[in-house]
């Protein structure tokens, strides 16, 4: 399987990442990727860029070195009602939004499965969100069987996150279960690196090995072909409104 886009990445604007936006795009070019999304952390995360960073994303060209650049954010889910930290006047600058739960941005130490399930059910209804980010974390388990089909119905892509194989190892069994349910219920997924350094862009080896183990259908992997990915963008993103991409 060939992955043609990496749609969850971070730049030095997230102060625990170490490459510039141009370095990340250049890495995507070297990996022959069709697209990259730059999704720095929303403002609730410690060390995140300020609101003007996201408001000013409009100055980033959608095409650099022949790579489609999606202007985005990894927004934080900030409570168990599914509220997020994108500011209203920044929504219009976003081509791509990943929604994730991070302990640093959500107040409760030990949420129940029911609370996390409620958060994700409400996230599924949010029209501004594209990707359900690394949702296999043990601490934030939810009712996979109930929520994952709703993600599919609402056009949300369930992420298989390459970085989970290194930084969230305890979540790997949950990630496998989530992928099994996506396969069973026909819910589209997306494979991303969540890279915080340019050399990691486009490196999907562990994720692809898991999909191969599960005999996961390629047609459910939205970023496994340019045509599938473009079709999703036309339905769920504003990026092709840019006259330069017509």
UniProtKB/TrEMBL annotation:
SMART domains (UniProt xref): POLIIIAc
Residues of the Polymerase/histidinol phosphatase N-terminal domain: 5-79
PANTHER family: PHOSPHATASE YCDX-RELATED
Name of protein: Phosphatase
Organism whose genome encodes this protein: Caproiciproducens faecalis
């Amino acid at each position: 399987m060939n992955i043609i886009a990496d749609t969850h990445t971070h730049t030095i604007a997230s102060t625990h990442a170490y490459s510039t936006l141009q370095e990340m795009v250049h890495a995507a070019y070297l990996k022959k990727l069709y697209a990259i999304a730059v999704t720095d952390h929303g403002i609730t995360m410690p060390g995140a860029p300020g609101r003007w960073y996201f408001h000013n994303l409009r100055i980033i060209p959608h095409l650099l070195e022949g790579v489609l650049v999606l202007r985005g954010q990894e927004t934080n889910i900030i409570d168990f009602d599914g509220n997020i930290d994108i500011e209203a006047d920044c929504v219009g600058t976003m081509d791509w939004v990943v929604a994730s739960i991070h302990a640093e941005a959500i107040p409760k130490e030990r949420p129940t499965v029911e609370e996390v399930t409620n958060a994700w059910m409400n996230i599924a209804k949010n029209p501004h969100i594209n990707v359900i980010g690394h949702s296999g974390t043990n601490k934030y388990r939810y009712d996979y069987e109930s929520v994952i089909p709703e993600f599919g119905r609402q056009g949300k892509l369930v992420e298989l996150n390459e970085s989970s194989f290194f930084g969230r190892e305890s979540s790997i069994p949950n990630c496998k279960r989530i992928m099994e349910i996506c396969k069973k219920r026909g819910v589209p997924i997306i494979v991303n690196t969540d890279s915080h350094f340019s050399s990691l862009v486009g490196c999907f080896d562990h994720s692809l090995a898991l999909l191969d183990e599960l005999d996961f259908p390629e047609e459910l992997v939205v970023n496994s072909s340019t045509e599938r990915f473009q079709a999703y963008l036309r339905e769920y993103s504003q990026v092709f409104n840019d006259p330069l991409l017509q």
